[in-house]
Amino acid sequence: MYDVVIIGAGMSGLVCGCYLAKAGMKVLIAEQHHKPGGYCTSFKRQGFTFDAAAHSFGAYREDGIVRKIFNDLEVDKRTKIQRVDPSDVIMAPDYKISFWADLDKTINDFQKAFSDESKNIKIFFSLFVNPEPIFFVRMRSWTFKDLLDKYFTNNKLKAMLSLPLYGNSGVPPAMLSACMGAQIFIEFLLDGGYYPEGGMKSLPDALTVKFRELGGELRLSCAVKKIEVKDGKVIGTVLEKDGFVLSRYVVSNCDARQTFFKLLGRKVVGHDFLSRMNNMIPSLSAFVLYLGVDKFYNLPEPGSNVWVLPQYDLNKAYSLVRKGKLNSIGGYLMHVYPDRKSLLSLIPVPFINRKYWNNNKEKLLESFIKRIEIDAVPGLSEHIIYKDAATPPTLHRYTLNYKGAAFGWAVTPSQLAIPDLRKPSFIQGLYLTGNWTTQGVGISGVIYVGYDTAKLILRKEKAC
Amino acid sequence: MGENNIGKEIISIISEVSGFDEEEITPETNFFKDLEIDSIKAIEITVAIEKKFKISIRDEDVPNITTVKQSVELVNRLLEQESLVGAGS
C-alpha cells in the first residue's frame, strides 16, 4: 500500500516524488525505462558524453524557482551548477546577437543591430522583468506573434527573437501561446544557460539519491499497465511485472494519451473527452545530432545555445517540416560542450512514420552536418570521428511520448492551461504532471509543475 | 443568479484550481498573496469564470480579479451589462 504512485521518473515526477516523500508520504515511482530522467539524461559514446535532448536549464537566478527547488532537495549539494555567458547566441545571415547575463548588455546589442526599433526593444525586454500574473492573464488568447507585432515591425528582429522559443517549444510564433512564449523568454533566455557538472544526467541522479534518502521507492524497467478507478476515485495501478499496487493518489508524469487512452481507457474517461483529445495537436518531435571531433579541432562557442537562422520565416519553416519537407533546414540549435570536442544539434521535425526515418536518417544526418558547416563551423566534416542521431522514433522509444513529441502538447492559446489535463475533474485522486499538462515547457517548466503538483496533493491531505 | 451564489461558484473555482479548501477562502482572500496563484492558475481561474458565467473579461478588467469580492463585483457588472445589451437588442 502506497500513499502515491507516480508513473514516470522524468524531472517532474522526481521533483513531485521528493516533496511528497519529504512530507512523510509513502511514494512509489514506476519508470518503464532502465534509467531515470526522461529527456533529461546523458550517455557516453567513444569517450564523448552527450546529453540526450535537454541540454541546459533556466530559472536558477537568486530568487528563481528552480534554485529554490534544487536547494530544498539538495541537488545543488550533489552537483556543481554553472552558468555560461552568453547563454544563447542567435546567428542569422545579417546579424549575430547574444543573450548575456547582463540584461542591459543584451538590450544594447539588440538596439545596435536594430536601431529603428531601439525604443521598443527596451520596452519589450522590460515586460519580462518580474512580471505580475496579470500580465499573463491579459495575453491568454494571444500568440507570441501577436505580442511581437504590438512592438515591432522588423520581421528579421521578430524571427531572431522567436527562434529560441520555436526551438524550446516545437511551436512556431504564429501558433505559440504568448504566455508560454513569455515564460520561455524569461526562464530560458533571460535566466538560462545553467549546466550541471557531468551532464544533464546529474540532475535526475541527484534527485534519485534524495528521493531514496527520503524513503521513496523508485522502480526502474517497471512499466505501468493500468490505473485502477472505482466509483470515480483512483484506487491504485497495475504494474506489468508486479501486478496490482494499492494507492490513494496516482500522479502521471507520462504522455497524456498514454494516461487517458491506455492506462485509464474509454470506459473510465468517456468518449467525449477522448475525442476532444484526438483533436489536440502535439508539439513537434526533434532530430538530434550528436557529433565528436578529433584532437586537431576545437569547436566554437562552447556552452552557449547557438540558434542558427538561415532564413527569416519560421512560420513557413514550420509548415514545410509539417509537410515532411525536411531538406530546407529552417532554423536549428547547436550546442557545443565545454570541452569543445563534441556537440549536440537539434532541429524540430514531425514524427512522420518509422519507415521514413529508417530510410532517411542517414541522409538528414549528412545534410544537417553540411548545413552546420556552411552556417557556423567551417571545416567541420573533415574532423568528425563520431556521429549519430536520434530521430522521432528514438524519442518515442525512450519516453513513449506520443509521436515522439519533444515538448508535450503544442502550447497554443487554445491548448493552454486546460484544467482536466492537470487534475481531471471526473477522477478523484488523479493528477498529471510534466510537459503534457499544458502548463509548463522545458526543464524549468516541468520542475515547477512537479513541485506544484506535490503542493496540490499536500493541501488536499491537510484538508481531509 | 444571486450574489451569494456567484460568490460560492467563484470560491469553488478558486478552491479547485488552487488546491486550498473552500473554508480557507474568504471574500477578502488575495489570490496571489494568500493562495499562491501563479500565472497559469490565474489564467485557469479567469477562463473558468468566463466559461461558468458566459461572460468575457476584457483586458482593462483583468486587474480587478485579485479577490473573491472583486471577482463577484466584476461578474455582476458584466452580467448586468450583457442583460442591458440583450434588452436593448
Describe this structure in words.
The complex is a heterodimer of chains A (464) and B (89). Chain A is of the alpha/beta class and 464 residues long. Chain A contains 17 helices and 18 strands. In chain A, the strands form four sheets. In chain A, strands 1, 2, 9, 10, 11, 12 and 18 form a seven-stranded mixed sheet that branches. In chain A, strands 7-6-14-15-16-13-17 form a seven-stranded mixed sheet, with helices on both faces. In chain A, helix 1 (11-22) packs parallel to helix 10, helix 4 runs antiparallel to helix 5 and helix 7 (144-151) crosses helix 9 (178-190). The two termini of chain A are 19 Å apart. Chain B is mainly α. Chain B contains four helices and no strands. The mean pLDDT of chain B is 88.
Overall, the morphology of chain A is: globular
CATH architecture of the largest domain in chain A: 3-Layer(bba) Sandwich
- What's the total helix number of chain B? 4
Measured distance between first and last alpha carbons of chain A? 19 Å
Give the structure's gist in a few sentences.
The complex is a heterodimer of chains A (464) and B (89). With 464 residues, chain A is of the alpha/beta class.
Can you lay out the helices and strands and say which pair or pack?
The complex is a heterodimer of chains A (464) and B (89).
Chain A: E1 2-7, H1 11-22, E2 27-30, E3 42-45, E4 48-51, H2 65-72, H3 75-78, E5 81-83, E6 88-91, E7 96-99, H4 103-113, H5 118-126, H6 133-138, H7 144-151, H8 155-167, H9 178-190, E8 194-196, H10 202-213, E9 217-219, E10 224-230, E11 233-239, E12 243-252, H11 256-264, H12 266-269, H13 271-278, E13 285-293, E14 305-308, H14 314-322, E15 332-336, E16 342-349, H15 354-375, E17 384-390, H16 392-399, E18 430-432, H17 442-463
Parallel strand pairs in A: 1-2, 1-12, 2-9, 6-14, 12-18
Antiparallel strand pairs in A: 3-4, 5-8, 6-7, 10-11, 11-12, 13-16, 13-17, 14-15, 15-16
Helix pairs in contact in A: 1-10, 1-17, 4-5, 7-9
Chain B: H1 3-18, H2 31-34, H3 39-53, H4 68-88
